Known about the structure:
It contains five helices and no strands. The protein is mainly α. Fe (ii) ion (FE2) binds next to α1 and α2. Fe (ii) ion is lined by residues 21, 24, 51, 54, 112, 142.
Amino acid sequence: MAMKTLDDLFVHTLRDIYYAEKQILKVLPKMAKKAGSDALRDGFEKHQAETEGQIERLEQVFEMRDQKPRGVTCDAINGIIEEAKEIMSEADDPAVLDAGMIAAAQAVEHYEITRYGTLVSWAKQIGMDDAAKLLQQTLDEEKKTDQLLTDLAEKALNKQAA
Ligand SMILES: [Fe+2]
């Protein structure tokens, strides 16, 4: 796809994050299954449900543009997920495994936060205010999830220190 305009770039990035969300949706149940603490498992499960809603929002944005939802391979998220899988297969100690998975999940969230932040501002610039609102909702969810992960990581560290 030729990327000549901001509009083209917007669609490309929409496809990038659509692909990313779908990959994340696949790995979240595996992370939930491996989680050592109930709080972390709940967090992953809750975010899985949230991710389904985020995918639906992206589909709505594609629809606003009369475009079929389509993903484009995102090497960045593939790399982050690959690292998460490595941690899941190599960490034996439950506390270490949880710490590693939290860190991996935060890398995912940070990637998403940068993408959605960009999409919100581009949507406004190309006059897609309704799309900007939808994407902002997802951005807020990703930020909340990131904060939740930070809280879980701190709690786990305090428990270990005690
Ligand atoms: Fe997401």
